[in-house]
Amino acid sequence: MEVTLLFFAGARDITQHGSRKLRLPPAIDTASRLLDWLCIEYPGLGPYSDCLRIAQNECFIGAQDQLRDGDVLAVVPPVAGG
């Protein structure tokens, strides 16, 4: 399946990508599996794996939600502000 990944804030700094189109391996079919795979591809994300969120086509999704071909998936780390 081909998707577009968007990386925000610290995730952008770690991956050195703002966005990236790529073909996911067949086993990467849920948000949880995507996060696991991303932490292998970008080890710097590992310490944040428990608090990273995935948005699918502009809506946050749960760990077991299915990914679909053509999705725009945003990787959103925790954000602080003031």
In short:
The protein is of the alpha+beta class and 82 residues long. It is 22% helix and 27% strand.
Name some characteristics of this structure.
82 residues, alpha+beta, Ubiquitin-like (UB roll), five-stranded mixed sheet, 2 helices, 5 strands
Overview of the structural elements:
It is a single chain. The chain has 82 residues and is an alpha+beta fold. It has a single domain (2-76), classed as Ubiquitin-like (UB roll) (Roll), CATH 3.10.20. It is built from two helices and five strands; from the N terminus they run βαβαβββ. The protein has helices spanning 9-15, 31-41; strands spanning 2-7, 19-23, 53-56, 59-60, 72-76. A five-stranded mixed beta sheet has the order 2-1-5-3-4. A hairpin with a 2-residue loop joins strand 3 and strand 4. The longest helix is centred in the middle third of the chain and has 11 residues, at 31-41.
Counting helices, strands and paired strands, the structural category is alpha+beta
Which architecture per CATH? Roll
> What is the radius of gyration computed over CA atoms, rounded to a whole number of angstroms?
12 Å
Count of distinct structural domains: 1
Tally of alpha and pi helices: 2
How much helical structure, as a percent, in the residues?
A: 10-25%
Q: Summarize the main sheet.
A: 5 strands, mixed
The CATH class is identified as: Alpha Beta
Uncertain parts: none
In N-to-C order, the SSE pattern is: EHEHEEE
As laid out across the biggest beta sheet, the strand order is: 2-1-5-3-4
Oligomer: single chain
What's the mean pLDDT score? 93
CATH names the topology as Ubiquitin-like (UB roll)
- Sheet-strand content, in percent, reads 25-35%
